[in-house]
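Weekly modeling sync, notes
Attendees: S.R. (lead), two postdocs, one rotation student

Agenda item 3: backlog of single-chain predictions. S.R. asked that every request posted to the team notebook include the full sequence so nobody has to chase files. The rotation student volunteered to paste the first one in as an example of the format we agreed on. Action items at the bottom.

Example entry:
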Amino acid sequence: MNPYPSEWDVMEEEQPIVEAEYEPPQPVPAPRPSRQAPPPRARQQRPGRQGGNGLNILSLAISVLALILAAIALFFALRPEPEPEEPPAPPPVEEPVTFRFGDRVMTPLEGMPLNPYDRAGFSLDEKGRVTYEGARTGVDVSTYQKEIDWQAVAGDGIDFAILRLGYRGYTEGGLFLDQTFETNLRGALDAGLEVGVYFFSQAITPEEAEAEAAYILNAIEGYEVTGPIAFDWEPIAPGNNARTDGLDNDTLTRCAAAFCKKIEGAGYTPAVYFNQSLGYLRYDLRELTEYDLWLAEYDTKPDFYYHFDLWQYTHTGRVAGIEGDVDLDLDLR
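Predicted structure, as returned to the notebook:
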């Protein structure tokens, strides 16, 4: 069975070749203007195609926003509850600065200069004397040391001497010259030592302290006294009917200041001698800081809390030319 149309069979058959007679060419008629096909019509979009695309974007945006909001909600839902804030701790209370003197707890005097010396800098030399870099060694003496060979003293490493010039009686209040003062003054000066003096005071008023200073100035007139001139007030043991019994601290401090002011006015170097008990419990040292302070504390290193300039560190020292014990001092100025 032939599946193709019958026309295809005819077209495929060979056609006989016929010789045609010559015919002159015929004029070719002018071509008829072809009719232009109308431009293709724009393909119309189906209604709702573009709007559907925008709707998809909007839907996606809403989905993303919903996801973000869900994540935020989940974060807040799972976030642990904040711990309640504790109230701020009160500022720490600073313990007041204190120091001990015996069985007492002491509060430092406001404005009083402190001990500036390095305890590690104090040491003992081969003679058992305390040394400190830059300090000079001296003795302080009175009639109790009796006759002194001052040349031997100077040859034993002593740089200066502070001599007791005199004292006030503690019952009647008279003024007296130390029995060995003039001899010691001349001997120490002749040996080339720097000389200072001290007066054992029992003043009960600033006026009496000034009178003691005047007594000293009169006694040293004409001598080369270049060392300190010291006010040495000491309490008398109870039961001796001392005129100074019951003297208050303020008056004592004013007596020392009056003495020093008169000495300074005469061109000399004033000083105040005291032990730790007087320094901590009696004197207001803040009123005396413009004068040299001479501390008596018997030890190999000073523990005194406040500033001082001279230090009497023993009353049992040994020095060539002096029989028996003698006070030894360091000048730390």
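Discussion: group reviewed the output briefly. Residues 135-331 form a domain with the TIM Barrel fold (CATH 3.20.20.80).
Action items: rotation student to repeat for the remaining queue; S.R. to check formatting next week.
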